[in-house]
Amino acid sequence: MASHGRQAWIVNWLVGAMLTACWPCSLASAQPPGPERPTDIDTSPQWRAMQEDAELHGVWFVDAQQGWAVGDRGVVWHTTDGGRNWQLQASGVRSRLPPIQMFNAQQGLAVGGIRQDYTRASGGVLLRTADGGQNWQLDAALMLPALGGVKFVDPMHGWAFGESSAMFPSG
Questions:
Q1: Which residue, among 92, 123, 127, has the nearest Cα to 111 in the 3D structure?
Q2: Sign (positive/negative) of CA torsion 92, 69, 104, 149?
Q3: How far apart are alpha carbons 127 and 110 in whole angstroms?
Q4: If pLDDT is split at 50, 70 and 90, which confidence band does 106 have?
Q5: Sheet containing 137-138: which strands, arranged edge to edge?
Q6: Half-sphere exposure of residue 31: CA atoms within 13 angstroms, side-chain side
Q7: Per-residue b or e along 139-153, where b marks 16 or more CB atoms closer than 10 Å to that residue's CB
Q8: Phi, psi dihedrals of residue 108, rounded to the nearest 5°
Q9: Cβ-Cβ contacts under 8 Å for 16 (sequence gap 6 or more)
Q10: Each residue of 110-157: pLDDT tens digit?
Q11: For 48-102, where are the E strands, in sequence order?
Q12: Alpha-helical regions (H) of the chain
């Protein structure tokens, strides 16, 4: 029984050490290991099928016709006909995107992130668009916890909140 406890401790320590050692590389872009270029994610048939099945968490319409929806696996869907048809836009990330906020038909933000359960480390994602979502730009220079919400009063002034973690105890 004592050896079983020691083996479990060693396994837990090794897993924790591996996660800690991989933390900067996997959370810097808030993406699990995978293709080097995010666009590879968005073009494979297998990844497309997974995105089409992703759970959605946020929706924002700028008028009665044009809107966006975001969710798991970095999905961003866009409609120009009031929701009758939706097109997938390439976000370039795999992380969960719970909220989106558009300022107008061209400018907007989507935020989210990932969290590693054992270490409680999290990495945030802040995506911006200036062309209606044709291109989503990841702001990789920001060091953020996984973000759960955003509220901006204009494109330059707003608030974001995130999950608490060992590195970001207040979220």
A1: 127
A2: negative
A3: 5
A4: very high
A5: 100-102, 108-115, 122-129, 137-138
A6: 18
A7: eeeeebbbbbebebe
A8: -170, 175
A9: 118, 119
A10: 999 987 777 777 888 999 999 999 999 998 888 888 899 889 998 889
A11: 56-61, 67-71, 76-79, 87-89, 100-102
A12: 2-27, 38-43, 45-52
Count, in order, helices (H) and strands (E) of the chain: 3, 10
Structure tokens that stand for 7 in this block: 């083996």
d(CA 93, CA 111): 11
Residues 6+ apart with CB under 8 A from 18: none
pTM assigned to the model: 0.70
**166/171 Cα distance (integer angstroms):** 9
* Matching residue, tokens 């997974």: 50
Residues contacting 131, CB < 8 A, separation 6+: 106
